[in-house]
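Folding Problem: From Residues to Backbone Shape
Fields: amino acid sequence; protein backbone structure tokens
RECORD BEGINS BELOW THIS LINE
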Amino acid sequence: MDKWSKERIVLLGDAAYCASPMSGQGTSLALIGAYILAGELAVSKGDYQKAFVSYEEQMRPFVKINQALGVTAAKIMRSQEKNNFISWLLKYLMNFAPGSWIKFFINLSTKRIQRAANSIKLKDY
């Protein structure tokens, strides 16, 4: 969505920025969005429009990073549907690779998720 608020209505969670089930970040985004929105509403002292703008300015970069996780995961899953060399190689490696290789690739994925999850600095409201 281009904007997550209109007049006195504001969206958060999946209604505003669904990151796809493939990102694994939906609940985190919703909780962090609620925290920021509540904090900005408290700080704005009744100026809800100002609070909505601040909430969106803080959340949008965080949301984009986490949405990208879903896109990347979907591309990997989609590539496995095709009969091509990379798909075959991935299946082969998963079946015959030593456990240390599999652990390495899982750690790469986990690090991407961890970087995305920690890519926002929360205010202490």
Notes: Helices lie at 14-17, 26-44, 48-79, 85-96, 99-117. The two ends are 27 Å apart (CA to CA).
